[in-house]
Every structure is written in C-alpha cells, then in structure tokens.
User: Fold this.
Amino acid sequence: MPLSAAASAREILVRLHDVMAGRSPAQAKLNQVVQIIGEAIGSEVCSVYLLRDGVLELFATRGLAEAAVHVTKLSVGEGLVGIIARDMEVLNLDEAAVHPDFVYRPETGEDRFHSFAGVPVVRRERAVGVLAVQHSEPRRYADVEIEALQTVAMVLSELIANAGLIDSGAAADRPQPTQATRLAGQKLVDGMGAGYAVFHQPRIVVEHTVAEDTEAERRRVYAAFDRMREQIDRMTREAEFGVGGEHEEVLQTYKMFAYDEGWQRRINEAIDSGLTAEAAIERVQQRTRQRMRQIDDPLLADRMHDLEDLANRLLRIVSGQMGTAAQLGLKRDTVLIARNLGPAELLEYDRRRLKGVILEEGSLTAHVTIVARAMGVPVLGRVRDVRRQVADGDLLLLDVAEGAVFVRPSAAMDEAFDAKLRARQERRAALARLRDFPPVTKDGHRVALMMNAGLRDDVSALDMTGADGIGLFRTEFQFLVSATLPQRERQQRLYREVMDGAGDRPVVFRTLDIGGDKALPYLDVEAGDEENPAMGWRALRLALERDGLMKAQARALLEAAAGRTLRVMFPMVSEPWEFEEARNLFERQREWLAARGRRLPAEVRYGAMLEVPALAEQLDVLLPRIQFLSIGTNDLTQFLFAADRANPKLAERYDWLSPSILRFLGRVAAQARAADVPVTVCGEMGGRPLEAMALMGVGIDRLSITPAAVGPLKAMIRSLDRSALVECVTRLLAAPGRSIRQQLGDWAAAQGVELA
Ligand code: PEP
Ligand code: MG
Assistant:
C-alpha cells in the first residue's frame, strides 16, 4: 500500500511520463496505461472507457476479456460507468453487483470481480471517459488510491485529447451531447440574439499535466499566488472608489481565499504527485467541486463560485493567458457570459459580433446595463449558475422579452426562436420604413420625437431612426467608461463630434449626473457611505459644490459649440436657485472665454430637468428663467412614490400609468404651456407606446426616448386621433381606478391604434 496520495500518484506519473513521450500509437499507449495503473494500485482489473459518438466504449483493459475491447458500449447514464460519466462523480463500491445501476455485460467476463471504483475523465468540464478498477476481493479502495486514480485521469484526458481518440465535439467545439436547457433571468435590456457562448474571463484548458521539473512548477505556482494577491488587493482598493464590476463582499471572499494557506498547500501536494502547476490547480479544484456537490448549502455554493473565479484567475496567471475575451477578439457571433461587467469592459467588445450578454448578477440601473442599452445589446441578468450550466462554445438563443436563454437549443426551440426573430425583424423593417415619415397624428398634430444618447456612436442612430434630434445626451457616460478623468480637450472633442454628427438637429447636453451610485474612481469626492445614494450628494448638488469639474465641462461645451446653438440642461434641480447658480457658472465661463477672444456659441439655451417633485411647486418661479424643461420620469416617479427604481420588489407595485403620475405630469405640462416653455419627457417611460400615448393624453408632445423606440412610437402616433385621446384620458383621470392601463389599452385597441 503506498504511503500517500502524492507518492502513489507520482510513482504512476513517472511511468506514464515515458509512455506519453513515446512514439507508439495511441491505442498501444492506452494499453500500456491500464497495465501501469493496474500494477501500481495492485488491482486485478483496470479499464478505460472513452466517449465516442455519444457512447462510452471500452477502449483498453487489463483484466477483462480482450474480446470486449471496442465491443462493450454503454450509454451515458447506463451502468456504473455510465453514471460516473453522467454525474461526473466517483464511485467506490465493495460489491458492485448490488448497486441498482449495475448492468452485467457477459462479454467482459467481469462476474468474477466484486469491488469496483471508477473516476470520470474530464476535459473542459465535461466527462469524456471513465477510468475504472476492479478486484475480486470485496474491498473498498482507499482514499489515496482514489486520489491517485483521479490524478491519473487528468493525464489520461491529455493523452486522449492529443491522440484524437475522442471526437473533439465531446469536449467543446461541436454541439454537446448534453441536453437542451432553458435558463431564466431578469430582463435588463430587451432584445433577441443568437450566438456562441464566450466567457468574459476565458477558461483555461490544461494542456500539459505531467511535470518535467517539479521544483520549477512549484516556483511557478508561488509566483502566480503572489501576483494574484497583488491583483486582489488592487481590486479591493479600487472597489472602495466604487469602480469595477465586482462587489465588495465578493472581493472580501476573494481575499480570504487568495490568502488561504490551505489552498496553496493542497496545490503544492498535487505538484508533489508529479503534476504541472496548471494541472495541480485544476486537480485541487476538481476535488473541491466534488466535496461541494455533496453539501447542499446555498451559502457555500456562492462561496464555491468565488473560489472557481479565483482558481480560474490563478490558472490564467500561471499559464500567462491574462487577456479577457475582448482582448482575444470575438471570432463569430457571440453571447458573452460574465458574473458581472464594468461598462468600460463591455465597450471593449466588437459590437458587430456581440449579440447579447448574460450576467450572473447585474441590475437594471447598473452602469453596464445603461451602456448596453445604448449599444443596443440585449442583456439578461441574474441568471443563476449560468457559468456552470453553459460551456464555452455552446450555442445560445437569448430572448430577453421571454426572460430566458436557450442553451444548446433543441430543433423545436430553434424553430420557435427563428420564427419570433423573423417576426421581430419584419416589424423592425416595417418601422424603419417609417423613418422618413413625420410623427404626426391622424388629426394633424406634430409630436417631437428626440432620442437619448451618451456615446459617440449613438449619433448615427439619428439618421437610422429619423429622430428629430438628441433630447438627452448623458455626458456622464464618457466619464463612466474612462479609466481616468476625461480632460477638457477630450470632452470638447466628443461634444464637437456629436454636434457635427447631428448637423441641423438639436442636441441637448445634460451636465454631469454623477455621485451617489455613479461614483468615479479617479474623482476625489467623499460622498461617504450614503444610505440613499439616489437621494444623496449627486448631480447638480455635487457639481455646484465641487465646481472645478462643472467649469471644465462648461468651457468644453461652449467651445465645442462655437458658432452654433448650445443647449444645456442641469440634472436634479430641486429649487430654482440651483438652476440660477448653474447658469451663472456657465455664463461666467462664457465671459472668461470671450475675454480671451475664443469663438463662442451663437446662442446658449438653458434648461432644467424636473426630477425632484419639490421643483414642481416652484414652477412659477422657475419657468420664466428657463428656455426648456425636461422631465426625467425615471427619477421623478421613484421620488413621487417613494419607491426605489432599482428595487425589484417594487418594480410592479406602482404603475407609470397611475393617476398620480399622470395628473402630476399633466399639471406640469399645462403650466409650462401657459408660460410658453417647451416641455419634454426623457425618462424610459416615454419609450413605451402605451405610456407615450398616455403622456400625449395629458398634453405632452415632446419625447426623448431610446433609439429603438422611435419606430414603434411613430407607428402609434400616426395611427392616433389626438383629440379623441385627450378626451379619453381626461375622462379616465377624472374618476380613476388604481391605474388606467387596462382602459387605455382597450380604448387604443377599439380605435385601431398601433401599439407594439
Ligand atoms: C431620468 O431620471 O428620468 C433621467 C432621464 O435621467 P437618468 O435616467 O440618467 O437618471
Ligand atoms: Mg435622472
């Protein structure tokens, strides 16, 4: 009996090393392998089953009848060998025949043997074969022997992959034998997309398993641990500033594991057994996975995710493959999978090949979601376990409207998806044809349809949709996607390019809306630990106090708009004096530039955003001072209802079509109209046809919406009789129920209004 797992495995690996290095054909090598293992473990039978054409086939044996080789075949899930492959679990039995899954194959002559132990041979996290030993004595195999078998199974996986003994499809590149699955998640950015799974942080496939020089491997692992710890420490420092995709709790767990001596020791022991650094890390990980599977505890399962991330990071460091999938480049249509992403990380991907994103975490208001919406990339969030259920290269059909992704789709899923996608595309094409038709109601009322933007590339959507201009340019996007504070010149260049792209069409630049949850790492502002960041030190509140930033932005905007009309609006104005101060700040910059002989805008028009309900009570003071008003319903409605817009528990509770919201908006619109100040709605609400119709019903006829909504809204507007609508909405709001959604929808259907 060997003294330890390491000694036992090393003895076998030393002998296997020579076999692997030899020039004999793969089959001969396998025959030698089963001899070596059987002898070393003192087992009468040692057999290797490999997956070929989806079936486990006996490829080599010492101890079973030779005639059974390439004859005995078991499906995945059939017999002991089949369940080891299916469940990727070890079996260790003193009496194999009493196991309920035991099947007897007479051609093997295995009835003489009682004890049985088998381990899966794994490649790319899929079982590609089974290594089994049997003995005539009814005895259980010792833990060290099982350990040795598992180590040897890793080497076998390398041997059979190199020799092409299994079809590579069994590993990853071709459709998996695994079943089609539907995974559910939260709708973050609507859309449909088909592509192959790519992990944002690519998984490493261990290519070499047997070490040439154990000490060299040990040094590699030590160096990798040092580097990984440095990285985690840096990420933790950055997280304190609120950047990066990772949450602080996750980083705490990373840190705990990264400094865990036990983990490093176990990897060291695996290296002692003769494995390379990569194989040792993977071996320890396999063992941990197996232990965790036996413990059914959701908290531990979360921890396991963290450890998987870290083990993958360690593997990537040790093998020198640190790039993300973006840096490696997307080679075909892709659905990206990540635990979480930062907005800058998402922007690194090739937009033409990125068909969708699936996040294990993610939320509606996360920056990455806002950026993905701007990029037109569908996103499904909170898909639990996606990284375990999906393998690299799996075909994925993402249908966010359904809140689902279909993994390795069946023919029926494929067909249904295609039909839906075609219908969607046809509808989009029909809507695109509306591009050159103005948004005029049947009774001749012209609505202004503007779009929301934030990235340079968004501007091209103006031509594609035929929108009237950009009603909300979120200038903080440039700041959010930058690693460093964008200097004035960079800001100015962006603003100029956006105005150039828009040509004659107006662009409304919103000054920075940062702070609170939109913290910038490079910006030294101490908001403290705000309990309610949405109601905290953000937007104009921050900008007026730390005015250096706003001054730089003002100059950038004023210079970029030289000779043109500049439209500026301020976010989160709560009282009129805040607007006044902000405008004064801009005006002083204008004077400063004028004194230096710089070219200035032909005209500057100032507007305020109405997002804080209190401002509505001072419209009489505000309206005479502003040239336009823009209602940010995302923030406004959360404040009106005191219901956090990011809280999923409240998402369905209050309706945008509630009488309170519509009455409120109607009053503001009437007051603005009386003061001759144009009023626009620029929140997400305006991008939904039924909601947009309701807004028109309360007198709003300027909307700024996501580009994808321009077509559907035009269709709605062009099929609508506005005066009938106003009459209907007025009547519904006079004696309302909880929401007017149902009645308004019924009215639209009866009137033949096109609602997508
Ligand atoms: C809003 O609050 O409605 C708005 C348009 O601004 P943001 O979504 O950027 O907060
Ligand atoms: Mg807002």
Q: What stands out?
A: Residues 571, 611, 632, 634-635 surround magnesium ion (ligand 2) (CB under 6 Å). Confidence is low (pLDDT under 50) at residues 168-176, 241-245.
